[in-house]
Amino acid sequence: MSELIKEIAANQPLTVGETIALAEKYNVRVVDVVLSETEIQLNMPRAEILTKVMDEYAHNLKALDIGLKDGESILLGTIASQMNQIQGPKCFQDTFLDNALLYTQAAQVGNHCIGLRPCAGTGDSCPYAGFVKAMMTAGYDEVTIAEIAALILKIGSIFRVGKITTGCNMEGFGAGAACIAAATVAMQGGSPRQMEKAIVLAMSPTIAVPCTPRVLVPALCTSHIGGAILIGMYSGKLCMLVDMTVNVPVDVMIAMASEVHVESARHVVPTVVEYMEPFFKRKELVESLVRQEVKDAEQQKIRETLEKAQKVSKKMAQGTKPILQTYGDAVVGGSSQAVGSPTNAARIAHALAKGKIRKVTVELYPELFARRAINIPGVLMGAVFGASTSDYEMYNKSVAMVKEMGIEVDIQEGHEESIQRITIETDEMTSMVDTLNRGGGRLVLRDAKPSLAEAVEAAKKMGIVLV
């Protein structure tokens, strides 16, 4: 074990592929590598880590319970409480699967009631909470539950870095499916290699899947987050039942997903071909007709692709924090991107403002402008009252309160990609933050008045993640 610790210490933060490879090399569980890495990062004993891992899930499990009992969503209504009232099986005869789906939908409903602590986004937090709750209901012991919850956070932390624009492929569907696949293999005692295969299989149908505008259409997101459970559990069980060739390394799949995520609108097919062509199945008879120099060039391309994938994966891992710092603050309103990031920008502007507020100007890029019904309440509660993204009571009354106070509000549609610029005019001065939207409640802070340095310091004090 000492050799394993030395190797983890020398290479951490680890990619998913590195984590799995070390587990296989030293004949330990993947979760043992995850927890050993965390012990090194935080200088904390394993028992304490496992306790704090479950603390990370506490808010989201509370939201799940609300959705299960009587919570109502603007997009999903009361589907979770309705399903919960059905006696016996809901969708499937498999009790664990049935419960995982029910609890995942309950978390999504609860998300629209009191918000969820986002990982890559709020979407993947739903299957994470749903799977953990299903384990609790099934009677798994506390240590096993916490270990698998830790594994989910490790993989989710990579997706949190990779998700920098809208897209369910790196959030609810993609990140969710990958984590649930790994959790299923771990729960049933599978090998590290089976886990890698399962994650790759689970991610495959999620590549380039967008969420907008589906996140504003009733019901459609249910198939995304429910699909994460279904595809994840199916991939995990399938890879433990049969021996099949899955020749794409997990870091290559994650690296490809992160780049397709950015380019999906224009370059989906070329990017997929770039990463996947080296792994296409060849027919020997056909290959015998191809010149050797062509095959040599293809082999060189394979080597270059693997090197590139490793660099992308390692850069993502280097951007992560320990798993106990992976989740952000809870975000009410149903979207950490559409609500969490602009609200946090407004909170920084509020911290810079002095005097009585007279006017708030909000400039949002077209996608956010179109979703103003859910983000303007958050922006105003942040700009005028300094309220955090988890203040669901203020979220529900901020617009009415601002109108009653006579504060002028000017909502503008910007045309620069990802722009969210908040300006506050008071009777003493003007404060402004110029930011770019990022998922998980995060943002890029480009400029600010009265100073960028003050804005950075304000963000730091409030725990707002700048990327």
Q: What would you say this structure looks like, in words?
A:
It is a single chain. With 467 residues, the protein is α+β, with helices and mostly antiparallel strands. The chain folds into two domains: 2-318, 2-methylcitrate dehydratase PrpD (Orthogonal Bundle); 336-462, 60s Ribosomal Protein L30, Chain: A (2-Layer Sandwich). It is 61% helix and 8% strand. A five-stranded mixed beta sheet has the order 2-1-3-4-5. Strand 3 and strand 4 form a beta hairpin. Helix 8 runs antiparallel to helix 9 (174-187) and helix 10 runs antiparallel to helix 11 (220-241). The radius of gyration is 23 Å and the shape is globular. The two termini are 35 Å apart. The mean pLDDT is 94.
Strands, helices and their partners?
Blueprint: H1 2-11, H2 16-25, H3 30-42, H4 46-69, H5 79-84, H6 95-114, H7 122-138, H8 142-162, H9 174-187, H10 192-203, H11 220-241, H12 250-276, H13 284-287, H14 292-318, H15 336-352, E1 357-364, H16 366-370, H17 372-385, H18 392-404, E2 408-413, E3 419-426, E4 430-437, E5 443-449, H19 452-462
Parallel strand pairs: 1-2
Antiparallel strand pairs: 1-3, 3-4, 4-5
Helix pairs in contact: 1-3, 2-3, 2-10, 3-8, 4-6, 4-7, 4-8, 6-7, 6-11, 7-8, 7-9, 7-11, 8-9, 9-10, 9-11, 10-11, 10-12, 12-14, 15-17, 15-19, 17-18
